[in-house]
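Please check this protein record:
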Amino acid sequence: MSFSPPAIPSNPASPDLRDSFGRKIDYLRVSITDQCNERCLYCRPAAYRGWAPRPEHLSARELIHVVQQAVRAGIRHVRLTGGEPLLRPDLAEIARGISCLPELHSLSLSTNGTLLAPLALDLRDAGIQSINLSLDALHPDLYHQITGGALNDFLEGFRSALSAGFQQIKLNCVLLRGGNERELRPLVRFAAEHQVPIRFIELMPLTLLPKQRDQLFLSAQEAWKILGGEENLTPDPLFQGGQGPARYFRDRPSGAMVGLIGAMTTPDFCSSCNKLRLTADGKLRPCLGRHGEIDLREELRHGTGRTEKLVQQAVDQKPKDHEFLAGYEPARPMTALGG
């Protein structure tokens, strides 16, 4: 079956920021650090020591300025990511500075959740509206094997997020052959129990060596079959799960909302792409699956106020599709790119 990403509805009141293929670009993912307290095998290689020196990271003021200029250009949705964004002690300051922008429609956060317990309520009060939490397994040993972290820390953070009252909470799980196939149904039941959507994401060529990727790759179609296929999963194209490319299904046995993201196997996966990415060291990337970047840090620190024009330049340079299926090899891993 085909897993085409849903069309993203347009807002006629918003000025259009369109690329050369007619796609409306209104979503910016902002990495605020490349550091992480976990070591997920699909994100941060075991030997990775390439943290950007802290002076190379954009400051809170610089990050807020970039987002302000991007919103002026037409960006309407912003997600704060990492590495692990909760490692930035000024995360709430950054969120407050962005959430007050009048043209912004949504501000969200992606985190592994293990540091969230004491911070959830403050982040909601700072303007974070929705939150994505990474959960690749419910068995503590397997969770540790995949992430290097502790499941109990995640669960404490998850419970705090539920109590804080975010507008939406979603769970993300990276599909891993020989790793978490048997966890898919328990994860769906867990999502149903807590009434949150869960999304299963194909492994992308962003960290592991090609042979490792081939061994671990599990497609969205296979996950669909593991979960019972059309007998269990009913398409729900009207579900609004955020700004990403997931296709959503209602799971009949549990009632959970299940999303599938198939960057590697979905035909025309990039046809509705609406996003740019900003790395922690100030590089604006038009595409996760290509190498091109625009240096905003130099402009911010030594330039003449051309940030908004550089955002437009990034949109103009946005390619039609990624190169994941054409032998793409990343120059730096996922933790340094911002997801």
